[in-house]
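We modelled the chain as a single entity of 470 amino acids. Its sequence is:
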Amino acid sequence: MPKALTPHALSTASATLLLALAGCAVGPTYQAPTPAAATTWHAPVPHDGQSTTLQNWWAQFNDAALTQFITWAEADSPTRTQAWTRIEQARATLTTTRAGALPAASASGSAARSGASGTTSTTVRSARLDASWEIDLFGRVRRNAEAASARIEAREADWHEARVSLAAEVADTYVQYRACGLLADAYERELASVTKTEATTATMVQAGFTAPSDGALARASLASSRSSAVRQRAQCSLLLKSLVYLTGHDEPELLATMAGGSTAVPQPAHLGVDSVPAQVLRQRPDLASLERELAASSAEIGAAQADLYPSLSLSGAITRSLGQGLTTWSFGPALAVSLFDGGAKRAAVDSANASYTSALAGYQQGVRSAVREVEEALVNLDSTRQRASEAHRAAEEYRHYLNATEANWRAGTASLLNLEEARRSALSAEIDDLTLEQSQVSYWIALYKALGGGWTPGATVSTNKNGAQP
């Protein structure tokens, strides 16, 4: 006949069973998806003997004003501050979630004095200690902690993405501003030239050497040139205000910083694109954030499934009556089973599965967008590179043609209409040349951003919002 279990043996067996059950965690085992990417780039990849890496790329522009503007923007960026606060919120969520797996204890005390008329009053004092611990039998807390931990990594990747995007936006705006200044100078030169032509034409019309229609054409050309010059200066002013917005510094300080430097469009070192698409996808912080969100969604499926099962908690209390020296205590397990909830918990599982499917689709969409951005930047770079030399040659030749036509006009062998057509062609060619020069640099910046901006997978963020430097 088997021996009956002693209370101690029963307690030990129960504890062993609880530990065994606590080791279970329901729900799917997460595996990071393998992004579907080609083995090579289809767009032309630039090859240059002086190609450099993404690290410290901005310093290789050799433009002190650009470096200063990026430093200012990163030091006081509301966007980066918001990204950092989201990291702190995610860290706090993880701490709160993990606390759910730990025992909780609380203490209370009371004192009361009572009596009746003509009787002696009495004072009753008591102290109470309560403790409880919910056993994480099916891994609900652990799955929620997994999700919270994954979201910390997602928010850290978002912070790095904000840093990369901010630097790229500052640089692109600065490049546009420099190109805008060169275009404004070109319009001012044209305006000065057209002003002289209009004055000469007016004199010739007054003397009867040319028809009044030429005077009207000269005045129309002058008005058009003035309008173009004003429009271009306004565009430059708008870009300057964008730099104020991005850097947090006022216009006089920005202009003073740029005053001592070159007015030319800054030229960056060429980026080397040696990695294949699949490697580039691992270099992008935005894709890392999407993948971590996918991991969090997977863990939340397990947390929702764990809610379908019973919950077990241990609770106890000790009460001490200080006046009477009486101590009472209680201790025992409590098992809670949901008998009817109208399908709420099952719906929570369905919702978690739908969230995972949505997160997976978002990640897949992000992969496609990343590949497209790199391919587009490569195509644009190759196109502008091929057009740039021809555009520069065209600008030089049209300028020579304008000078010759102007000389012929002064000699009386060319009409004012011929002169204005030559002027428009020369100005259009110069604008095209400067625009292509600016576009080339902008496309290099776009490629820098599309390649991940030098972010290293696993890079963490300091507890100080400005602690992680680019």
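As a brief sanity check on the tokenised model: Strands lie at 104-114, 122-135, 311-321, 326-336. Residues 1-15 have pLDDT under 50 and may be disordered.
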